[in-house]
Specification:
The chain is of the alpha/beta class. The chain is 35% helix and 27% strand. It folds into 2 domains: 172 residues, 3-Layer(aba) Sandwich (Carbamate kinase), CATH 3.40.1160.10; 155 residues, 2-Layer Sandwich (VC0802-like), CATH 3.30.2130.10. The strands form 4 sheets. The protein has an 8-stranded mixed sheet with strand order 3-6-2-1-9-11-12-10, with helices on both faces. The chain binds adenosine-5'-diphosphate, aspartic acid and magnesium ion. Aspartic acid (ASP) binds next to helix 7.
């Protein structure tokens, strides 16, 4: 008998029929003699609908109130799944994040989990009850409802698995595993049977939304056995999805590149003609950091006539705010010539642990993009990834040609 945590995403919970299907799948795991804790998302589209409604009433909704509101999507699905399970004779009980006590900090809309109280869940599991927990939400030390950032139910699932020391955390979604890139963009993308934790962490942080980055971080920290699977496979036809492994890669056949990630959510700001002197990066980025805006890539160009251009990227949602700070504080106080912004860029990245031992990946990537006439605006690298910023109109083309150039569509690369 094992303890399994299963997380079902929005599409998997998207209609009464699908919820009944989830109940049947949970029942099958139960019938095998396992203890099951289920974490669910809101029905697909619901969180977007709630956010749009809030913004319709208040253009910049108060974050505390927004969390009170957007956490309701998951409160609906926990109850529906519990009802569906009871209807097929399975004991089940639903819990909101606060009822479990998923304790978080007070950073509304992107709170971090600080601890999880296992007592209620353990008691139910001991009495053979399926525990159903609302994903994406928690409660802070003052009793305020918090949410964990978009896609946060993945993190709820892995955090619960870590707290309960579950034997496995299964993330059920609308694809049957982690692919070499988003199969919606490249139909030739292949499912990976296994992917290393390090690679998954990079892919998630570079935009592959199949797993929320924090869920992968949790899995790494607490060594949770994590698997991505499809909730749409019929009984008896199930595959084993993709396992996120912690083992060192010793296989000589390991491909150099394991996947291509992309992120549309980027914007670039350039401060033109700043004096080229020590402290300039700090003077520009200090006020941005103080406003809690995360900076991703940074480039400082070679100086001409004692001045230089300084560019960096931010999340597209923070573009207007960052531009305003530059215009109001930097241009005047630091003495820049102009501020230029571009919120039609995207980031495309190649990820693979094989890069460590194979030089030439960067040049292949740059040549492939050049052959398509795609201009690279910024570059950043780490040991196992290379990212480029390009105009967003080239996103799909860039992903497709890189996927092909690195032969990710070839079965032999597995
Ligand atoms: P859920 O609602 O189940 O959490 P998401 O929409 O958040 O599902 O994540 C699943 C989606 O992630 C897939 O439908 C797919 O389009 C996208 N995706 C992006 N990159 C990848 C990848 N490398 N492998 C698989 N899916 C990916
Ligand atoms: N419902 C939330 C969202 O849409 C959380 C999740 O689905 O993981 O972001
Ligand atoms: Mg998701």
């Amino acid at each position: 008998m094992a303890l399994i945590v299963q997380k079902y995403g929005g599409t998997s919970m998207g209609s009464p029929d699908r919820i009944r299907n989830v109940a049947k799948r949970v029942a099958r795991w139960k019938a095998k003699g396992h203890h099951v804790v289920v974490v669910v998302s809101a029905m697909s589209g619901e969180t977007n609908r709630l956010i749009a409604l809030a913004k319709d009433v208040s253009p910049q909704p108060d974050p505390r109130e927004l969390d009170v509101m957007i956490s309701t999507g998951e409160q609906v699905t926990i109850a529906l799944l519990a009802m569906a399970l009871k209807d097929i004779g399975i004991k089940a009980k639903s819990y909101t994040g606060a009822q479990v006590k998923v304790l978080t900090d007070s950073t509304f809309t992107k709170a971090r989990i600080l601890g999880i109280d296992e007592a209620n869940m353990r008691r139910d599991l001991d009495s053979d009850t399926v525990v159903i927990v609302a994903g994406f939400q928690g409660v802070d030390e003052y009793g305020n409802i918090t949410t964990l950032g978009r896609g946060g139910s993945d993190t709820s699932g892995v955090a619960l698995a870590a707290a309960l020391k579950a034997d496995e955390c299964q993330i059920y979604t609308d694809v049957d595993g982690v692919y070499t890139t988003d199969p919606r963009i490249v139909p030739e993308a292949r499912k990976l049977d296994r992917i290393t934790f390090e690679e998954m962490l990079e892919l998630a942080s570079l935009g592959s939304k199949v797993l929320q980055i924090r869920s992968v971080e949790f899995a790494g920290k607490y060594k949770v056995k994590l698997r991505v699977l499809s909730s749409f496979e019929e009984e008896g036809q199930e595959t084993s999805g993709t396992l996120i492994t912690f083992e060192e890669v010793t296989n000589m056949e390991q491909p150099i590149i394991s996947g291509i990630a992309f992120n549309r959510d980027e914007a670039k700001l350039t401060v033109q003609g700043v004096p080229d002197r020590p402290g300039i990066a700090y003077q520009i980025l200090g006020p941005i950091a103080e406003s809690n805006i995360d900076v991703d890539m940074i480039i400082q160009n070679v100086a001409h006539d004692g001045t230089t251009d300084f560019s960096f990227t931010v999340n597209r949602g923070e573009f207007a705010r960052a531009k305003k700070i530059l215009e109001e504080q930097i241009k005047q106080h630091v003495g820049a010539r102009a501020i230029e912004g571009d919120n039609h860029i995207c980031k495309v990245s190649a990820v693979g642990v094989g890069m460590r031992s194979h030089p030439g990946v960067a040049s292949k990537m740059f040549r492939t993009l050049a052959e398509e006439g795609i201009n690279i605006q910024m570059i950043s690298t780490s040991e196992i990834k290379i990212s480029v910023v390009v105009d967003e109109k080239y996103l799909e083309l860039a992903v497709r040609v890189l996927h092909k150039a690195f032969e990710l569509d070839q079965a032999s690369a597995a």
